Amino acid sequence: MTDSGLAAIIIGNEVLTAKVVEANGSHLVRRCRERGVRLASMHVIPDEVDCIVETLALARRRARFVVTSGGVGPTHDDVTVRAVALALGRKIVTSPRLVELLRSGWKHEEPPAAALRMAEAPEGSELVESKDAGYPVLVCDGVYMLPGVPEFFRVQLEVVLSQLPGTPLVLRNLYLRAREADIARPLDAIAMAMPQVAFGSYPTFDPSLDYHVKITIEHGDPGEVELAAARLRAELPAGALVREE
């Protein structure tokens, strides 16, 4: 396990068989980016206990925290909580607080047994409650188990992100007329000289655009970004820079 970063596991046969359009992964990527939380990996897997256990073990080697999406409901294919408990070596217990919340939703009648499955949790789990989320986030050993329904996932994800360390990144984009091969050598040299800065090179072949390559420069310190951009500008062929954002 590393000491930072977040990994995501999107769980659901319906995603892998195109029964639904997966929306949680792209939203999570965007929000992690905005909050400055490093996203180490993302996995899309079926509702299978063995697969969830195996993937969770891999995700926890790559990141300090893990978010799962899906498989926390009351039906036969909702196996995420049980799989997480197995992966962490925990027993399954019933959370009195979750039972209380479920019963409040049924008001004057007892919830059906299937509904009470949603009160199960790995032993030692915590509930992170928020006034903005109607239902608490279930977390155990840094594994946050979120629902797969996008509306609920998005609300609970904000609760998770509010607890994670993050440093928003400064991004600079340089749009170039030059071809990628023409700027590869100076870009490689600067990237090697400044390993603390993240560089990206993205060619396009769309003739309607006014550039051939977009270079991205990222770091938490604006000064580092400006220094890297200045060094790259100095090495570009004459007239190569279209614009900078």
Describe this structure in words.
The chain is an alpha/beta fold. 38% of the residues lie in helices and 27% in strands. The chain has nine helices and twelve strands. The protein has helices spanning 13-16, 24-35, 49-62, 80-88, 96-106, 113-116, 150-161, 180-193, 222-235, and strands spanning 6-11, 39-45, 65-69, 92-94, 120-122, 126-130, 133-140, 143-146, 170-176, 198-203, 213-219, 241-244. The strands form three sheets. The chain has a six-stranded mixed β-sheet, with helices on both faces. The chain is elongated. The mean pLDDT is 94.
- Determine the fraction of residues in helical runs and give it as a percent range: 25-40%
Strand count, sense and barrel status of the largest sheet are: 6 strands, mixed
| Secondary-structure element pattern, one letter each | EHHEHEHEHHEEEEHEHEEHE
Q: Mean pLDDT score, rounded?
A: 94
Structural shape = elongated
Count of DSSP H/I helices: 9
End-to-end separation: 37 Å
Number of strand segments = 12
Beta-strand residue fraction? 25-35%
Lateral strand order in the biggest sheet: 2-1-3-8-7-6
Protein structure class: alpha/beta
List segments where confidence is low: pLDDT < 50 over at least 5 consecutive residues: none
Provide the gyration radius in Å: 23 Å
